[in-house]
Every structure is written in C-alpha cells, then in structure tokens.
Amino acid sequence: MVLLASLGATLTIFVGLSAMIGRGRSRRIDGRLDAYDRAARPGREGALALPFSTRIGWPFLHSAMALVRRLLPASAVASIERQLVLAGDPLSLYAYVAVSFAFLAAAVMVVVAGLSLDITTAGRVGIDGAAGLVAASPSFWLRMRVAARSHALLRALPDAVDLIVTTVEAGLAIDAALADVGHQVQGPLGEELQLAIRETALGRSRRDALQRLADRTPVAELKTFVQSVIQAEETGIPIGQVLRAQAAQVRLRKRQRAEAEAQRAPVKMVVVLVTLVLPSMILLVVGPAVMRMRDMI
After folding, report:
1. Which residue in 120, 154, 210, 223 has the most C-beta neighbors within 10 A?
2. Is 73 in a helix, a strand, or coil?
3. Per-domain residue ranges for the chain?
4. Distance (Å, whole) CA 182 – CA 196
C-alpha cells in the first residue's frame, strides 16, 4: 500500500507539471490577447483576473527552475541544452529539468517505500533497480529521440541531395533549390531546410543559416555537405560541381552502410538461431526418443 501511495503521489506531481506545461503553451496567444483587456484594469483587479496557474504556478515554477539552473554545473546545463537541440527541441530546458526531477522524486519514493516493506534482499535489489530505471528514464528518452532524429536525417539525406542537384542544374539558385526541397522532403531534414531558408529571409546570411543548420544536426554527412556548400560559395567554385560530388559521396556512404549492415546480419541471426530455433529443433529430434526410452524403462 505504501508503494502504491508513493507511485500515486508521484504520478499526480508529474501530471500536474505536464498540465501546467501544456496549458502554458496553448495559452500563449490567448494571454497576449487578454493583455489588452487587463491593461485597462487596476493592478490588483487585473492580477486577480488571471488564472491560478498563471498567478501562482508559473512564477513558482520559473523561480524553482532558475534556482536549479544556478545550482547545476554549467557543463551539465550546456550538455542538456545540446541534447535537446539535437533531439529537435521536444521540450524546453525548464520543462525537461522539471520532468527529470519528477522522475527522480518518483525513484526516491519507490526506494523509501521499498525500505518500509518487509521483503527479501532480492526483492529490495529489484526495487532499487526499478528506481534507478525510473530516475534515468528522461535521459534514456532524450537519447532515443536524438538517435531517432539522426536516423531520420540520415535516411532522407541522399534523396534530398539528389533533388537539390537536379533543381540547381535545372536553373534554380541554391536558396530556391533548398526551399523547394525543404517543402518536398518530409521529416526533420525538411524542417531544418525550411528553418534555414526562413532565417535567410529574415536577414541572416546564407553562410550563418547553413552553419546553424549543421550545428543543430548530429549527422556527419549533412555537416560535410553544408561545409562544402559554404566553401564553394566563399571560393567561387561552381556550386553544381560541388553538389554533384557531394551527391556521389552521400550515395557511396549509403551503399557502404548497407553493406556493413548486410555483413552484420549473420551475426545477429546466430543469436536468434541459438536461443530460439536450435532448442526447438533439439526438442523435436530428441523428445520422441526420450519418451520411447522412458516407456521402455
């Protein structure tokens, strides 16, 4: 019962934090519109007209997160921010830290509940292991998001580079080609290309926009492609030749990865054969003989 109560309390805290974060995102536009109405009210009346989460919850959460950021090492904060950028910014830094502390509190509650129970040493070790997994869940989730996004970028890159080469050779400028391919390609790569084009439209130089695109992605092939385009622009090399060379390199690396995966396939199949197929075959072959011998005895 103590364990269930601890888990229930932790779930309540996590749901409350998630609700506050979700409501905060959905109410940004409404809050801006309501600001015009509150500006005409007296200060106290305008403050009391705000919802409870805005008056109490958000200031407390921001103060707590600011305190946590001051207490955490700068290297840890920079590492978390970098991982969030590589994952596509699924959460803000404050939201991720809040969720991490919620899971950490859940792990502590699980450990405390396990200490209050009369269980064996093996059961206590299992509870401690489960608490460790709960505490590390946000970090595992973030790493999985980074890996999934990297895989999606890597899969979409060869076709996107071929489209860029085709559109440039058809007569489009590199900016127009990137914008066109960004609208055609689905997934993280299309989103990154569209973001780079929007940055150039807002006044950022093409070099800076492409460099920021490379910094937001962990894929080495994409970084190489971006650096080649930047160097071609700076040195005056025809962009078509550079793009064709990069397209050939991207295709070559894709073929090499496919060959490497094909070479690793037999090793992976051995595990399946030893753990699943071989015991079944032994049971089918030896089982009837064992049953006959038992009947004879």
Report:
1. 210
2. coil
3. 2-118, 152-254
4. 9
Residue type, 132: G
Task: Read off the pLDDT of residues 104-121 as tens digits, 9 standing for 90 and up.
Answer: 888 888 788 777 777 777
Most distant CA atoms of the chain, gap in Å: 99
Please provide the CATH number assigned to the domain covering 152-254.
1.20.81
Q: For 122-169, how does the pLDDT look when each residue is reduced to its tens digit (9 = 90+)?
A: 777 788 888 888 888 888 998 999 999 999 999 999 999 999 998 888
Q: Mind listing the pLDDT tens digit for each residue in 197-247?
A: 999 888 888 889 999 998 888 888 899 889 988 888 888 888 888 889 988
Q: Got the DSSP string for 104-152?
A: HHHHHHHHHHHHHS---HHHHHHHHHHHHHHHHHHHHHHHHHHHHHHHH
* Torsions phi, psi for 151 (to 5 deg): -65, -40
* Residue 98: closest CA among 65, 144, 133, 72: 65
**Residue 212: what are its φ and ψ, rounded to 5°?**
-65, -35
- Is residue 23 classed exposed, middle or buried when 0-12, 13-18 and 19+ CB atoms within 10 A define those classes? middle
**What amino acid is encoded at 20 in this protein?**
M
C-alpha closest to that of 185 among 212, 204, 165, 158? 158
CA distances in angstroms from 17 to 96, 101, 296, listed in the order given: 11, 11, 69
Nearby residues of 174 by Cβ (< 8 Å), 6 or more positions away: 164, 168, 206, 229, 233, 239
pTM over 0.70: no
Q: Which residue, 135, 233, 130, is CA-closest to 175?
A: 233
Please tell me the predicted confidence (pLDDT) of residue 25. 45
